[in-house]
TrEMBL record:
Listed name of the protein: Major facilitator superfamily (MFS) profile domain-containing protein
One MF annotation (Gene Ontology) recorded for this entry: transmembrane transporter activity
SUPFAM superfamilies given in the database record: MFS general substrate transporter
UniProt topology in membrane: Multi-pass membrane protein
Domain of life: Eukaryota
UniProt keyword terms in alphabetical order: Membrane, Transmembrane, Transmembrane helix, Transport
Subcellular location, principal: membrane
Protein's cellular compartments: Membrane
Keyword Transport: yes
GO cellular component assignments: membrane
Domain called Major facilitator superfamily (MFS) profile: residue spans: 85-541
Segments passing through the bilayer: 124-144, 151-168, 174-202, 214-232, 252-271, 360-384, 404-422, 429-447, 459-476, 488-510, 516-538
Amino acid sequence: MSDSINVVSKDNNNQFIMEKSDSLDEITSERYNIDNSSSDFDSEEKGESSLGDDLTIVESGDLVLQRKIYLINNAIDEIGFTWFNLKLFCIAGFGYSVDSQMAMVQSAVKTYVDLQMKGGGYPIATEIYFGGLILGSIIFGFGADIIGRKLAFNSSLLLSSIFGFLTGGTSSYAMYSIFMFLSTVAAGGNLATDVAVFMEFLPSKYQYLNTSMAAWWGVGQTIASLISWAFIPNNSCKEAFCPSSENRGWRYAWYTNSGIVLGAALLRLFYLKLDETPKFLVSTGRDEEAYEAIMKVANQYNRKCSLTLEQLKACGEIEHTYFDSTKARGITSSIKELWRTTKVNLSILFSSKIVIRSTILIMISWMFIGISYSVFYNFLYIYIASHGGNTGNTPYLVYRNSTIANFVGIFGPILGGWLILLPKFGRRGTMIFGSLSGMAILFGYTTVRDASADAGFGAATYFFINIYYACLYAYTPEVFPTKARATGVAICLVADRISSSFAPVIYWYGEKSGSSVPIWVCGAIIGCLSIFAFFMPFEPSKKRSV
């Protein structure tokens, strides 16, 4: 840029002022003390930021967008935590709950669905379930960075509940699999947007709530366990090809769960009434709408906000790399524009050495936790039984222990939210603690020989593993740039769910051999997650997310 431009900065009294300069690079170097002679990697490793407290080094190099997000962060911090943020914490958090409810419900009913419709054999519906999660993460996750967070956030739970009701009413295995797949596609896409939406409205002082919000994951697991405990033991058959009249429990579980999800969807549509996030709006060149979204919150809760539209516009025009609806006038042109924008967003996740390092380590972490956690629990009870243990195989004990364990797991993310505030912990330290303690508990789980010990170790496992999971869930969108945040989360979820989908395969073939090797390998992999966390380059505890 060679023409003179206006730039927003602050004076010594912390007031916004306007400056003129002949180039954006000149302003960047002088105002923010950037040494252009040093390498990007060196400055990034030192944690330097051209915009004060913002984690701008994860961005793709669009300095105009960085400045606009810096102003929006200042405005959100000035407004502070409001009732809107609390509502969003609960309503977006319930998206975590729905994701875990879907996993628990389909797992709890699959045996009884098989008995009625299929008679046993390989768990095909489980693989279809993972396929739905993968496709949903791609469609809703990538779409949230292209057409916006609002549509994905508002539609995912509604679609999931509708298809969930249809799943409960099916009379053939094929139709059950199809409607469960569609319900899961919607639920799987929901998780890719929940924490991004919450984070993009959250004042930096309260960023620890990104981690604590994962407590809703345990809430969902507890709800699903209670649903299963209430309906399945007394409303299920025990023999293959039993009639539906004797096997209503799995249907009641689907209907009840779908009703709860529908309630959450209606809250999103008619109570929260979410507007598009300001950070997404400025990343797509819509400064006026971004300003209006911020001022709507400020005016609604009578909070001061010094931001002006002129300040946003004075930063300049962002790079035109976003989805342009004017170019999508037909099916062919729409596909081309979607593909172009998706490639741009993917490239942002690999835009520099340090960002590549961060993206790869996070993706590997998601992949490892996905397969290790799933395989461990599939093999655990085989191992215990082969070593003379009896954890109690009655439905009552199974669902009782599951409910206790999942309820205790709620408090893991709450502890994680507190730990990240400690100077010596932060995000990475909390993940290291969660993975190592989780590994120790999982290895200890192999000593279980009765139902009481199973309940105790199950509760401890969920508690400590959820510390790691909660921090990873929060850390992932925090270190991805605004333009590609949902895309990055979606890729990580896809890695997690592809690896998780191998669990039924390993279980199916490994069950016959009775080998204990998968138990120890999976526990060790969970411990290795601490190494990945140690080498992650960014510590968002010290910076504001962009």
